[in-house]
Write a structure and sequence with these properties.
This is MerR family transcriptional regulator. The protein is 64% helix and 5% strand. The longest helix has 35 residues. It is elongated and about 75 Å long. It starts with a helix and ends in a 7-residue tail after the last helix.
Length: 135
């Protein structure tokens, strides 16, 4: 079986705790992003006597989930609200689906607004473009 380093790192990370550099390598998230996730209460770590962060087993999956939620357009405050419900199936309620549906509606409204802006801009380009015959 051919396993990439990142794939191997993710496999090992599921079973062991890891330092910030290892978690960064396993997830592709920068160390700065990992510290930000921790500041926002999205990720937890313990500290060594020397102050180095040690992340628990499962941190790779947690960071991957956070990255997916960020890519879906959720901000860190919203992620902090929904993450416990997503991470623990026993906490899933209609509230979670409603909250995610609300985010979907928000993104859909932004897309509609951007489509209208694009159409206006395309009209301006057409209106003010110089053609060889009119130059």
């Amino acid at each position: 079986m051919d396993v990439s380093f990142k794939g191997f790192a993710q496999l090992v990370a599921r079973e062991t705790s890891m330092r910030i550099g290892d978690l960064s390598a396993a997830t592709g998230a920068s160390a700065r992003s990992l510290r930000y996730y921790e500041e926002q209460g999205l990720l937890s770590s313990t500290r060594t006597g020397g102050g180095q962060r040690i992340y628990p087993p499962g941190a790779v999956e947690r960071v991957t989930l956070i990255q997916s939620l960020l890519a879906a357009g959720l901000n860190s405050v919203t992620i902090a609200d929904v993450l416990p419900c997503i991470s623990d199936a026993s906490l899933r309620t209609p509230w979670l689906a409603g909250r995610l549906r609300g985010e979907l509606d928000r993104v859909s409204a932004q897309i509609e607004s951007l489509n209208q802006t694009r159409d206006i801009l395309a009209g301006l380009v057409d209106q003010y473009s110089v053609t060889p015959a009119s130059a």
